[in-house]
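Researcher: Re-running this chain for the archive, since the previous output was lost when a drive failed. Same request as before.
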Amino acid sequence: MPTKIHARSVRVCAAVLALVLVGWRPAWYMARDAGFYSAQGLKVDIINMSGGSRGAAELQAGRLDIMHVGLSSVIRINRAGGDIRTIGSLSNVIRFTFFSAPGVKTAAELKGGVIGVSTFGSESDSTVTLALARLALTRNDVVLKEYGGGVRRLDAVRSGEIKATPLNEPIASLARAQGVNVLVDLVPEQIPWVFSSIVVRRGDIAGRRDLLMRFLKGTIEGNYLALNDEKRAKEVLAKELKITDPKVLDITYNDFKAQSPANIEISQPGTENILAQFPGGSQRLEDYVDASLLAALKAEGYFTAMQQKYFR
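Model: Regenerated C-alpha cells:
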C-alpha cells in the first residue's frame, strides 16, 4: 500500500512517494482516476488553496512538493530570495475577464477604486496591469487588495464592496449569467502567458529527478486522456469538483480544452510577456523556468508514444 509522506519528512519507501499538489486541473484528476500515478509508483494528494502565490510560498518553504501556479508567482518568489522553477505548463494563454461593480462601466468610474485579486503576485494580480492598460490606466490609479477565491471576489464585486475583479471559468460564466458588467475581456485576445504551470524547488530537479520524471509522465498521460475522452473527463470533474450543473460542467471542460497544451510545454512568448510585467530584476528565463525534464521526455519518445496512443 502506498505510503503517504508530506512536507519535509519526505522519504522514499519502496520507490513510492506521496506528492502534494495545490489547486485543480483535469490532468491531475484524470491521472489519478485512471491509475497513471500509481502505475508510476506514486501516491498523489491534491490540496486546493485560494491564491497561487500563497501556495508558491508554501512550496518554497518545503511544506508542499509540487505546485501548479502561474509564472508570475515564481518570479515574485525567486526575486525575494526563493529558488523554485516552472517545469511544465497546463495553460499558455490568459483566461481572465475583468468584471466591475454596478455603476462602474468606464475608466473614470473605476479610477481610485479597489480591485480585488486572489493574492498579490498571482496571475489575477499581474494581469490587472494589462486590463488597466486597455482603459488607459495604471496600477497607481487604483487600489489593489487580496480577496481570495473567485466566488468571494464575485460576491464582493456584485455587492459593490470592490469596484472590479478578474475572474476565470467557470466563475466568469456565472458572473455573466448574473448580469455582472464586463469591463475588460482579455480572453478573446489569446495573449501568450504561462497561466498555470507546474512548479518545484530547483534542488529537486536534480535531487529527485526520477520522481519528477515519473510524475510528469503520469500528468501528461492524464492530460492526453482528458483531451481525448470528453465523457470520462466530465465524469471525473463532476465527481472531484462537486459540479452538478451540466452547463457549468460544459464550461469547465471547454475552458480546459481551449488552454491546455497536450505536452504541457512552456510557452516562450508567454514567459517573455510575463517578464515584461516585472522590470527591475533578472530577465533570464533560466532563473524561473527549467524545461530539461520535458526535453528528456521528448528525446525518449514519450510525447510521440502519447500521440500514437490517444490521437490515432
